[in-house]
Amino acid sequence: MISAADRSVFRRIATTFSVVRETPRIPLTHLTAAPDPTRRFSLIETVRRGLRERRLSRRTEEAYVHWIRRYIIHHGRRHPRDLGETEVKAFLSALAVDDHVAASTQNQALAAITFLYDHVLARPLTRIDGIAPARRSRYVPVVLSEAELRLVLKRLHEPYRLCAMLMYGSGLRLLECLALRVKDIDCERREIIVRSGKGGKDRRTPLAEICLPAIGQLLRRQQTHFDTDRRRDIRTTGISPALLRKYPNADGEWPWRYIFVARRTFVDASGVRRRHHLHETMMQRTFRGAVAAAQITKRATCHSLRHSFATHLLEHGSDIRTVQELLGHRDIRTTMIYTHVLNRGGLGVRSPIDRL
After folding, report:
1. 12: Cβ contacts below 8 Å, ≥ 6 apart
2. Catalytic (active-site) positions
3. Buried b (16+ CB within 10 A) or exposed e, 248-264
4. Mind listing the pLDDT tens digit for each residue in 177-212?
5. Which residue, 59, 223, 335, 348, is most buried by CB atoms nearer than 10 A?
6. For the whole model, what pTM was predicted?
7. What is the C-alpha to C-alpha distance for residues 64 and 113, in angstroms, rounded to an integer?
8. Straight-line distance from the first to the last Cα atom of the chain, in angstroms, rounded to the nearest whole number
9. Local structure of residue 117 (DSSP, 8 states)
10. Contact yes or no for 195/259 (Cβ under 8 A)
């Protein structure tokens, strides 16, 4: 028969085990091993680390890695340290002659290979004939008239219509528009703050009053979806680890919510379910369909809305420096491509056939 003292001992043991059993375990994904200084990275890993150390964008990283891989494969998978200026020239020549790539594509490949030799292999290329940026052809951007814009917008449904209105009304690039968060829209000041645009630059651009009702309706719908996602612990994407260390719950807060969210969610490498913004291919496909339905023969894309924004501003007397700031161009020469509208056909000369 168990005595009262023994029962007291057993009770204390059981309590101890229950406490241990209820103690939450730290998941392995939260444990970070100390970096191993002796670890040797592969060439592609070293390239990625070099690009990230210089804070280059994810798209630049993927493009550079792509061209470096093609350069290695083109020369029979030989290591780049065993290759030199002659092999670089042969690769760039094959791109232009055999693959018929555009000048901008060839320049991107050259930039990737130059980065590889300058910053990864620490063996800069010497200047030889044939290794120089290809000359890009001058082009006139595709611009939609105001009448054509009305026809296209009529054939778009929400949220794609609002996205097109913001790109045209504020001069946004496609990804700049899709990556807008709730905190980036200032309805009181009628402005949009573009965060980390092309070149990692922030800028302010006007918000058209005609967009305010559609934005209000979309935000009210998003608030309902956000409450559901918060109960399911679905978090947003695109917030850097450094910012999450400073604001640990930023990816679960309303101000950081995307305005144009994707329907589907996914589980990232750490096991957290997240929701990204609307994918750019969805907007591109929908816009092409609207242009075709409006029977517009111009080769218009989503970027044509940004071209139209700059062109129409200049047509109505805006200063080119102001347009440069709104577009976020570093060089005024980039903005000068829109001055074709000031020429009015051959520097304003009237065609003689109009006098017949």
Report:
1. none
2. 173, 198, 303, 306, 329, 338
3. eebbbbeebbbbbbbee
4. 999 999 999 888 899 998 877 777 888 999 988 999
5. 335
6. 0.71
7. 8
8. 124
9. I
10. no
